[in-house]
Amino acid sequence: MKSQQDHPKHYSFEFYPPKGPKGNEALAEARLQLAQLGPDFFSVTFGAGGTTRSGTLDTVVDTMRATGISAAPHLSCIEGTRESIKEMVDSYRDAGVDRIVALRGDIPEGGEKLGVFSYASELVAFIRKEYGDRFHLEVGCYPEVHPETPDPQADLDNFVRKVDAGADSAMTQYFYNADAYFDFVDRATARGVNIPIVPGIMPFPAWPQIERFSAMCGADIPRWIATRMAAYHAKDDQQSVRDFGIELVTNLCTRLLDAGAPGLHFYALNRADPTAAIWRNLGLPANNAAKQAV
User: Is 14 an active-site residue?
Assistant: First the structure.
């Protein structure tokens, strides 16, 4: 973890493009609350197959305008061409975006063919070639191994290729086992990686939801956590689900930060309360100078 201790700590929150008036209202409320914590940036997810491409741009622009805080769009190479990807990056550049999260993206159900790029490393290399150092490029990584890559060595090789292509920093898939993160960082460091690797943090908004997410993305939920959550859910004890989840994730974050993790990236899911509660428990400072969201 020595390589990570040398980096300053940065904190960020992730949203997804809202759908409909209720979704817009929920995001605006969450954004208002989380902006007051003064994150270094927000990120906004990107849907495969064009489902939220325009929504990502709109949400990024609205977020920067409303909060005065940088927003980083996720950019996927699924189904993209060089021309369409460049057009999208041009739009972000023109909107004043200075950070992009470059991902391969999820292959749509039934999809057999990727776009012009098959890997995020190729997308990173393309952006670097076309735009130089105009953007800070974030990439993803998987302490518990990408679900499509059963070989941990091959998974690490993929990450190293993204770093070699020009990634500035990385954010991980979420996990609930800190040792998985420590092991991944140590193995990456041994391969010469020295960029910040920021842990991805997923609060527990609801037990069945996290159970589904984890099954899809390959995040392991230790049995002792799953059994307690399932028992609370079976009794419809949502307060205990919330309280245990906040305690659990607070302890995880404390261990990560104490070991030298270079910050935290919260998957907020367009909700403020769980993330804000964890933030307060950690004693992280709030920056009330952020522009009021509108």
Answer: yes
- Tokens standing for residue 247: 């305690």
Query: What would you measure as the largest C-alpha separation in the chain, in angstroms?
Result: 55
Residue 55: which pLDDT band, with cuts at 50, 70 and 90?
A: confident
> Nearest Cα to 174, choosing from 271, 279, 267, 262?
267
pLDDT for 6 beyond 70: yes
Tokens for 261?
């993790």
pLDDT value at position 292?
42
Given the residues 14, 122, 138, 144, the one annotated as active site: 14
Say what the pLDDT of residue 293 is.
Answer: 40
| Helix H or strand E segment including 227 | helix 223-234
CB atoms within 10 A of CB 84: 15
- Collect all residues with Cβ–Cβ distance below 8 Å to 10 and sequence separation of at least 6: 40, 41, 196, 198, 262, 263
**Span 227-238, pLDDT tens digits:** 999 999 999 999
Give the integer Cα–Cα distance in Å for 243 and 248. Answer: 8
Phi-psi region of 82 (alpha: psi -120 to 50; beta: other; left: phi over 0): alpha
Report d(CA 76, CA 153) in Å as an integer: 24
Domains in the chain: ranges and CATH: 2-282 (3.20.20.220)
